[in-house]
Amino acid sequence: MKFDFLFQSSPWFILLCLIAGAIYAFVLYQISPTPWAKSTNRLLAALRFIGVSLICLLLLNFLIRQITQSVQKRTLVLAIDNSQSMGVANKQVLNGVLSQLESLKEKLQEEDFEISWTTLEGQNPEKASDIQFNQKSTNLSSLLSGIKNAQEGNNLSDVVLLTDGIVNEGINPSSEKFTFAVHTIGLGDTIPKKDIAVKSIYANKIAYLGNKFPVQADISSYGFQGKTVSVYLKQGGKTLEKQVVNFQQKDDLKTVTFNALASQKGVQHFVVQVDVLGGEFSSKNNQQDVYVEVIDGKEKVLLMALSPHPDIKAIKSMLDKNENFEIDIKILTENPFPDLSNKNYDVLILHQLPDYFNSYSNIYKPLLDKGIPTLFVLGNQTGTTYLNQLNQVMRINSQAGQTDKVTGYYNGNFKSLNFEAESLDLIKQFPQVSVPFGDITLLPNSEVILYQKIGSLQTQKPLFAINTGPKKSAIFAGEGIWTWRLEEFDLTEKQELIDDIFLKVVQFLSAKDDKRKLRVYPISNEFLLSDKVVFETEIYNGIYEKMYNIPVALELKDEKGSVRKYNYTPSAENSKFEISALPAGVYQYKANASVLGKNEQSTGEFIVKDLQVELSNTTADFDLLRQLSAQTGGKFLPASQLAQLEKQILAHKAPEKIEANEDLKEFINLKWVFFLIIALLTTEWVVRKYMGGY
Asked: CA-CA distance, 572 to 537, in Å (whole number)?
């Protein structure tokens, strides 16, 4: 412990305090003769001197800094890879290793170590017997990084990692830097086992009703050279297609491709399964599930333009990136009377329409009157007078033929769509586009995505804006989008930034407004078998204000037709409902509630997946563990040599970590000073009275 004094005024004032105390004592006790002895007189003078000096020192209000230092105990974490592949190992060997680690913990605690357990999911069990080896994947990098963050500030010197080294998620842990030694204990068999497995499956997440789509599967084998097996594509227990593969090598990998038909809407559950042969190490990895969402048709986008222009090709290239868009292009100068009778469009894009002369209004005006969400892309031929009569985004006051050259910059206050503001700074480097010259006024419910930038001047004139009101629409006020895409590719060798902006705007326009009073939906479309399925609930009144404490009945129906029923009541504090332990598969849900006397319903579907990545590879990887330990200054030991670990940890001389705590106190706030002054003055008064003084 260490004390320092911090003065808020010159330390020379202390001398003045002492002088004041000395003068006070001298004036009071220099009288002679006294009714008491000289020694008593000196004692009384000393008491008065100290008391008055302390009172004067209180007026200086200096600070006392107290620094307390302590040496932190060394911290050690026992990290356990509790994935399913660890459970494949010999149970007796695994339990024996865990028992040895418990003994190691007790011995090191006697050596003044702080020790705790942790697992892949970040749990901290009290003892090894509480650990369940049921995790569906292994991410050792995340495990070690989690330990690093959780032990920040502690004297973490060593981590003991029990694992088989099979990593199937995250990055290689040996590529990261850690400030502690990682001692790895290798468990498992490094010799490949005789086995056949469905290694991986590839399929589009979305397919369109009535179309065929490919399902590709990689089938691996070890030790079955010369053997032939059948691979099946199944749905609902029914075989849709069968293929035969022949393994020609000891360690072989074959790829098979099935063509499945999207015959019904919704999420479809397919299974790729391979025959089980005699002598296989495990049959659990002989099949895998794949889920494909089948949708009925695409969002239909009509791109109608006055005349051919490079911007039209640029917009089409953007929209082609989204497979859910079907683009129909009509050039009116080439085809003045397009046939639009057979299609119901979801989004309308008008390029340089209306023009100066309001030509072709009889073609696009009926579409606008239907309330189809519209994106206006302006150009040098746009008639702003007619445009002002048709759009709900902005009013442009400009003369025909008058234009300005601008580029854009992102509006950081725009929140309706999610964009990364930092990446959008690149727009400032894009070429200038041609915009109408004049005053621009935003209309109600309109928000600006991009403002106009003239030279180095950032104006408040909108370049790209959307209206989020009942009649959704948007305006890009510039001509030359194609130059932006070329410049972005020149700068980044990608065309993502400007494409992302336009795609999100068109997706926003195509999204159907949800007017339901009851909205029940899962927080994700996909859950893992070990996850809780969480539903969010929103209930609204007639003016779409949220309501609570209304009972909701929820039904789940699985692929076999079994129904599970639940009842819950959302509140303002908790509008979520959780369901645990659902088997893997596709579930359809239906929620009902009585809202303001009317029955409201919300429906949908979600997937519960059973990942098999842990069972697709059961061959331990000790080379990774050796590399990790070598890089961190730790030691790799196979499970059979675990007894040497205590010696290795004690031999690791980690630097001590000293913890210092600083406490600042004002001298005037110290209670003992107050009582000391009272004691000094009281003692002086009692002695004077006892000796006959006044």
From this structure: 11
Cα 506 from chain centroid? 26
Q: Which residues of 28-50 are buried (b: 16+ CB within 10 A; e: fewer)?
A: ebeeeeeebeeebbebbbebbbb
* Of 6, 70, 13, residue with least CA distance to 664: 6
Per-residue CA distances from 292 to 210, 295, 322, 618 (Å): 13, 10, 17, 28
How far apart, in whole angstroms, are the C-alpha atoms of residue 35 and residue 40? 10
The full DSSP string for 480-542 is -HHHHHHHHHHHHS---HHHHHHHHHHHHHHSPP---SEEEEES-SEEETTSPEEEEEEEE-T
278-295: b (≥16 Cβ within 10 Å) or e: eebbeeebbbbbbbbbbe
- Relative to beta strand 473-476, strand 457-467 is antiparallel
Q: Is the dihedral of CA 89, 95, 96, 98 positive or negative?
A: positive
The SS3 of residue 48 is helix
pLDDT at 592 (0 to 100): 96
Q: How far apart are CA 109 and CA 649, in angstroms?
A: 12
> Tell me: the pLDDT tens digits for 10-49?
878 888 888 888 888 888 887 766 777 788 888 888 888 8
Name the pTM for this structure: 0.57
**In this predicted structure, what is the pLDDT of residue 48?**
85
Burial of 668-694, coded b for 16+ CB within 10 Å and e otherwise, reads: eeeeeeeeebeebbeebeeebeeeeee
pLDDT bracket for residue 352 (50, 70, 90): very high
| SS3 of 128-162 | HHHCCCCECCCCHHHHHHHHHHHCCCCCEEEEEEE
Residues 6+ apart with CB under 8 A from 237: none
Cβ contact 384:401 at 8 Å: no
Between 313 and 399, name the one with better pLDDT. 313
CA 531 to chain centroid:
17
284 alpha carbon, distance to own chain's centre: 32
- Residue 124 phi/psi, 5° resolution? -125, 80
Structure tokens at 494: 């990608």
The answer to whether residue 609 scores a pLDDT higher than 90 is no
